Amino acid sequence: MSNVVTSYFYCDASGEPLARIDRIEPGFDGAGKSFLPYLWNPSKGRYHEKPGLHGTKLPLYHLDEVRIAIAAEQTIFFVEGEGKCDRLRAALHASGSRAAVTTIAGGASASLREDHIAALAGAGAVQFLADSDAPGCGAATDRAQAVASAHAQCDVRIIDLYPTRDDGSDVSDWLGEGHTLAEIDALVEAAPRVGQSPMASEKATTSQLSSRATREQAKRPTFVRVSELLAQDDDLGVEYAVEGLLPLGGTAVLAGRPKGGKSTLALSLALAVARGEPFLGRGTRKGPVLYLALEGAPRGWTALLRKLGVTEGDDLLICIGRAPEAAIAWLSEEIEKHRPVLVILDTMQRLLRVKDGNDYATGSNATDAVIELARLANASLVMLHHSGKTQRAEIVDEVMGSTAWAAAVDTVLVLRRSERCRTLASEQRFGENLPETVLAMHPATCRISEAGTKADADRKATREAIVAFLRQHAEAEPELPFTDEPTIEAGVGGRTKAQREALREAVAAGEIERIGTGKKGDRYLYGLPRSLVPDYGEEQENENRKIVEKASKIEPDACSRPPGNTPNTETGITGAGNEHLAAQTADALFAYAARRIRRKDDAPTAQGELDL
């Protein structure tokens, strides 16, 4: 019975799917293997059920990665067959190499077409790894000569991994036998360029060698003594597009849920930098801004730009549409042309077209070219991306996909949205982390500003909830308007620590009142300030009038209490001879109510005890 053992996926230069080729073993009609192609159906978002290419010409395998590697001046390895291609590709990715691996459909019998050769334009080096049999060597030779003839500046070489074999051994066998990538590099260095004889290669002119050495040296990083770095002026430190947040020559990811406001926030950032205005309270470096809008219709973007108040004088350039083929090379040219301070990619996936965002090696390799762009341009490059569904304790863990996306960049920004507010927080390699900050959006202009930290906002909301709860409590229990912390915590909800902090802040601010000593048998009780205690109706108002009338009858020059005129032991209110009666009355009533709350049995009090 035949089974599909693996599938190979072809895409265009932007990473859009074109076709899938299934490898079937055993093959048809007694063959060891067979291949069935299925075209991609874009209208249905899946591959056709019936096999066949129907005249479609497949491009280079992993064409999108080939174009990224060319833009980053990396080597292209060309092998025979998709399976061998993927095996070498995985080994390169695991080693951290940014080289690309490609092939064409049809095996050794297929010839390179003109579009295949054109796709390699701009490549600095294409190395053909030949299978160790006559068809394999012949195919590698023909293909290498075709590329060398079309691209004279390209370093094209043929590498024979098994010069003493003629059994079809290939790069998969090489890796399986324990050989290393370093050994392949050594074979590449020893192989002559296509179009040159070995003797000519050895006798290359001094100027050619010098030129090549100079180019290679310019690409390589250099070790310097730390004393040289320490001797440099402090002015040579990190510079920022947004002070302490987005370094020039650095990269950032802005992650958030779909439809969470990332684009509006990013455009507000872009406009602030273009005008040199503060962004979220931080200074900006004024300069050109490039905004690559790869999602949404032009009319929607135009409407948002008008609402933001963008004018003809703003140094903001926007490109709306799908990323072109060889997008990294194209973007590099645009950056070179406009020399921006800030570049915003909306969204990262639409530009890089990675197939598996959860694969660390894929993510790391895909971001390399973007990081290099930012470094060479000395611009801050911000990539919009999606965050996961679940809010995590660590900001970097909220970026969707592999940790490579967050690990590769200098700044990770996460936009969160709740029922109450939107917040922005950062985790960064340079500068000062942005604490989770509440964002406010002007309803008329959609401009974004800061509204304090989320911690402050949460405490304020908790304080408001506590005051509201105590007001409801006072209305429900007019005779016992004060209550204890456990009752408040149960009524308000939320984290106990946050509630207690908010409770003490509310007391300090005079929003609520606290009575009691906080000691055993006399715990703290909380209620509204006495001036804010609600009116509880006509009956209570009449009682208040009686209290005021009795207090007004006290003679103002009364300065002593007659013998035997002792305070009521329950309420603490003294008889009519006390000169402080008027002042004591309200205090005593509240204290009396508090003592009643503290009573365990809460036994009813005789009516006469409150009769003034």
Number of strands: 21
- Stretches where pLDDT is under 50 for at least 5 consecutive residues are 196-219, 543-586, 598-612
Assembly context of the chains? single chain
Determine the mean pLDDT. Answer: 78
| Proportion of helical residues | 25-40%
Distance between the termini: 102 Å
- Architecture per CATH nomenclature, i.e. the level-2 architecture of the largest domain: 3-Layer(aba) Sandwich
Please write the CATH class name of the largest domain: Alpha Beta
How large is the share of residues in beta strands? 15-25%
The global form is elongated
* CATH topology annotation of the largest domain: Rossmann fold
Q: Give the biggest beta sheet.
A: 9 strands, mixed
Total domain modules: 4
Short description, anyone?
The protein is an alpha/beta fold and 612 residues long. It has 20 helices and 21 strands. The strands form 5 sheets. The chain has a 9-stranded mixed β-sheet with strand order 13-12-14-15-11-16-17-18-19. A 4-stranded antiparallel β-sheet has the order 1-2-3-4, with no helix packed on it.
